[in-house]
Amino acid sequence: MPEKQCVPSSTYVFKDDDLPYEEEILRNPYSVKHWSRYIDYLKTSKSPNLNIVFERALKELPGSYKLWYQYLCHRRKQLKTRRIDDPLYDDVNNAYERALVFMHKMPRIWMDYCLLMTEQSLITRTRHVFDRALRALPITQHHRIWPLYLDFVKSHDIPETAVRVFRRYLKLAPEDTEDYIEYLILIGRLDEAALKLAHIVNQDDFVSKHGKSNHQLWNELCDLISKNPMRIKSLNVDAIIRGGLRRYTDQLGPLWNSLADYYIRSGLFERARDIYEEAIQTVTTVRDFGQVFDAYAQFEELSLKKRMELAESKPTDDDDIDIELKLARFEDLMERRLLLLNSVLLRQNPHNVQEWHKRVKLYEGQPHEIINTYTEAVQTVQPQLAVGKLHTLWVEFAKFYEVNDQLQDARVVFEKATHVAYMKPEDLASVWCEWAEMEIRHGNCIDALKLMHRATAMPSRKVAYHDDAETVQMRLYKSLKVWSMYADLEESFGTFQTCKAVYDKIIDLKIATPQIIINYGLFLEENNYFEEAFRAYEKGVSLFHWPNVYDIWNTYLTKFLNRYGGSKLERTRDLFEQCLEKCPAKYAKALYLLYAKLEEEHGLSRHAMTVYERATNAVLPEEKFEMFNIYITKAAGIHGVPKTREIYEKAIEVLDDEKTREMCLRFAEMETKLGEIDRARAIYAHCSQICDPRVTANFWQVWKEFEVRHGNEDTVREMLRIKRSVGAMYNTHVDMMTAQIINSTTTNQDAPDAMTLLDSRAAPIEPTQTSALKRNISFVRGVTEGGTTKDGQVINPDELQIDMDDDDDDDDAEAEDDEELPIEKQTIPSKVFGGLKLPEPQENTEEN
């Protein structure tokens, strides 16, 4: 280049401080380090010679990228406060041009130059710079230039230039097609935008840089072409949207609406209406149907509204006709909604029986449509795929003809229904039963019997009822439903022999139920064939096991007793023994009571007592107490009250604690009434071992009242001693656990000891303090307190004094109590330590 272009016009101002750097430059003119040190010094000192030194350095070292980059950056900083039309911009542009002579492979230099040119708004010149940069740089560096180039062309109103630049750029980066489409939409070139969008939608390997799925791109395309039908001429909109319908079956509603919207905006309203009708007749989901139907209804409503507004503004002769037509269309659409929705559900699953029934109800009052619907339903639904009971369609079809007095047509329907390959024999049995019931309703009882005879006819070979490999027609002969109805019809309209033959056949086929056996027996009994009835019951007993056989045994024994009473006592006993041999405890009570009643009325009393005794062992544990009460009552009535002692003793051994207490109280009361005071006292002592004084205050109150009436000071003292001993026995287990629980939950370190706390809360238990026991659990002290007297006698502050002359004052008797024996040395009769030991009853109870 000429010399005048390399040296700035400003003159060099030499200073004394520059001398060392100048000397180094003279000695090392080709050293970048020395030039950089000189330049850094000048930057620090803000010398006006900086540009001149840069130019001198670049003249010596024109290939130094470091020097060129620093120089250009420094020159750009000088432009920050200058206007765009300042001549200094031309100097900087010239510096960049000179730098690119040597630095044309450096993308950073090109990028800064392009940005500088973009700031100057020199469109053509800037475009040329960008093009030169793309030509000069290798292809691997183009991605640094193109974003600047695209920003430049988009920032100016040069759409044709921008489109051409974008087209060039997409050859390098086709993944940025979406940005091009957005720009085309922005500048209004919708036709080309639709073409590019359709192109990327059809590319299976296209990956959106914005994370959009192919389906989202399809929706954008449909929205674009449907909302701008007049501006898009290069695409077949109908074909594109229908292609989307075939491709995206889970979004049919929006696509159908887009296609209809395209024709609406195109002014083709009848074509849009056809599209809506096609859509609601083809969609298969309720969601898509709802979207299309709402859009269709809105379209019809708006069409009617616009026509009415037009008629008001510009009335013509045809206004009324057009308005009535559009109104009729809108009303017809709204009336068809439920029917159209039902069609959608049937398209989802044409084998849904319930939906076919709903469709028939929607056609109420239209017999031809009902017949066509039933015909279509029975032809469409396949038994293997049916959801619901297929036979109900055939039955309702036949009933429709029956209601309209077309019995012959109904019979034809039933006849066809009997040949359908149902999945279960019960379905075919229901068809036969419904056919027979129809004949009965119209008085054709003989025909109904013939139908049942046909239904129960034996096939050519025997097959298993649950063999799915065989047809239901082959397995129908073992259907209990058909046989049951056959038996009912024979019982009502047939002869005794034919009905008996039906019941016998049911039993022979081994399909009878306990109810069938009972019905058979009742039928024979009604016809006075009592022994035949009993033989039927015997067959039923042999067919079933417990617990299914309980109803048969109960009916059999009841009928047998009613028939013969005690005339065939041995036979009746054999029946009861046979019944009770394997009878579960759950059903034993009623049968034993029936057996005992037989022995009481017709047998021997000792046999009855034996039965009651067996019953107490055979029934459920929760029923034993009730059974013992019945046993005791019967024994007292037959043999007298003294004979019940053994029963009481046995009951006390086998019952649980709660029932044992009640039984002991009753036993003691009975002994008291008999004058056996010692025996009653022994019973109370025995029962006391399972009576915690804190819980069973009632027992101790009853014993106290007994001792007050029948005892003396010694017996009362013994009773109180036993009470304290039992309380101590329960406290040994309960108090320690309660103390541990309280101690573990105590968080205050200064709180008193747990056992001390329990003692402080304890209160002496009086028999009359039943209500207090319900509120607070009081503990009887297990140790003696209070010191001793002078003669060494222990003083117990909890002792009760009992005055025999006054029932309400118990303190005196307690004060004279002897020393307590240790618990381990007491010899109180107990369920724990042995059975109930009672004194022998006195012979003369009246004297006692």
TrEMBL record:
Start and end residues of each Pre-mRNA-splicing factor Syf1-like N-terminal HAT-repeats domain: 17-175
Domain of life: Eukaryota
One of the GO BP terms on file: generation of catalytic spliceosome for first transesterification step
Subcellular location: Nucleus
GO cellular component terms listed in the entry, alphabetical order: post-mRNA release spliceosomal complex; Prp19 complex; U2-type catalytic step 2 spliceosome
Keywords: mRNA processing, mRNA splicing, Nucleus, Repeat, Spliceosome
Biased composition (Acidic residues): 800-821
Chain segments carrying region Disordered: 783-848
First and last residue of the signal peptide: none
Domain Pre-mRNA-splicing factor SYF1 central HAT repeats per the UniProt entry, residue ranges: 178-381
Record domain Pre-mRNA-splicing factor Syf1/CRNKL1-like C-terminal HAT-repeats: where: 383-754
Pfam families (UniProt xref): HAT_Syf1_CNRKL1_C, HAT_Syf1_CNRKL1_N, HAT_Syf1_M
UniProt similarity note: Belongs to the crooked-neck family.
Protein name: Pre-mRNA-splicing factor SYF1
